[in-house]
Amino acid sequence: MTETVVPTPPSDLPRTLGELRASGHRYRTVKQELRENLIARMRDGVPRFPGVVGYSDTVLPELERALLAGHDVVLLGERGQGKTRVMRSLVALLDEWTPVIAGSELNEHPFHPITPASTRQAAEAGDDLPIRWLHRSMRYGEKLATPDTSVGDLIGDVDPIRVAQGRTLGDPETIHFGLVPRTNRGIFAVNELPDLAERIQVSLLNVLEERDIQIRGYQLRLPLDLLLVASANPEDYTNRGRIITPLKDRFGAEIRTHYPLDLDLELDLIRQEAQLVAEVPDHVLEIVARFTRAVRESPSVDARSGVSARFAIAAAETVAASALRRGGLLGEDQPVARVGDTVSVTSTLRGKVEFESGEEGREIEILAHLLRTSVAETFHARLAGLDLSGFTNLVADGGVIETGDLVRADELLRQVGTVPGLAKVLDRLGLGDAPSRGEAAAGVEFVLEGLHLTRRLSKDLNDDGRTVYGV
């Protein structure tokens, strides 16, 4: 298991309250800090939300307005729209280092203690109050809402051990604080908020509005300083629960997320997120992106559930893995994905798609049709207007070309030899002036499949699983 490495604070930072005051440090709330740092990044032209793709003109402007207004935020959208990525990106807008009272459970600011213990410590130590510095990566808390989440998990509960030590139940120091107060002076995110039982959602009401918490029947006045963000699926799809109306009313901003609006953004997302174990040419990635969008728009697919961006990412990774498998079996050192490798996606990823009830048993058939359509669209988009007669002439006299999952690139290229127009095809596909053997084979197979889908070549599968193109 990989451990999170927390950076070491610079040695020249103040170590006591007196040194902090002398340094000219200014106390700001979390929302003031986010607002000022966001404005500074806007003025400097620095990326505000690194790693978030496809939201520059839609979601992010709304999020920026919410942060500038000091609003808590709920992100509403279907699965796989990057809601968690957006929430986690907010950490970059916090100060890199912030001072806290040494030993404080709630990360209290030295200028603004809120618990009785820290207030007493500050009064006794005066300017010698020791402080430590907290990195922004430690100022983010996140909870995946589940039906078994309790008030104690989020807010806190009475610690029976402290009661047994002689403290009374009314003593605030008997409380074991939950995740929300422990994220004081930071950002707390609740993933899938409607999955919280309604009685648990009630516990967040005071946190959002009055900024205090109530535990076990008595109120502990703790002016918590945090930004609360949450994610949720649309209520018409999430039958497991809903956000209760009073809680929804306390969020200052409700922002709708969406899937990438155009093909280029879908491709950008795949390139950023997919961990590819073999080379996947751009035209093959484009097929995957078009396929994902076609599945989302298909009337056979339940639109309320959505088709996650993880579908496209997993599809690209599966295609790369298919190429790597071929390389391993056939001894190719630099395997390159080809259009035939995309077929594996229809069976391995069908579990990521929720179909309409009337389509039971036709899932593979539907996905295969959408994949063929996506290949044809990519073929038209990439190679429209090119003279491809050199490829059709290869089989004009009854010849055939065999390719497939376990056909080496060299074997495919040997069958086609020197083809008039191949250089222009490879140029259109962005494979450069000096493509590798694997890239050239990927280009050839793409043309053959495109010619088949436009009814200029026939296609058959032989007994050993090879694909045969002919007239």
Automatic annotation (TrEMBL):
PANTHER family for this protein: PROTEIN KINASE PRKA (PTHR30267), PROTEIN PRKA (PTHR30267:SF2)
Species this protein is from: Planosporangium thailandense
InterPro entries the record matches: P-loop_NTPase
Name of the protein this chain belongs to: Magnesium chelatase
UniProt lineage: Bacteria, Bacillati, Actinomycetota, Actinomycetes, Micromonosporales
Alphabetized Gene3D superfamilies for the sequence: P-loop containing nucleotide triphosphate hydrolases
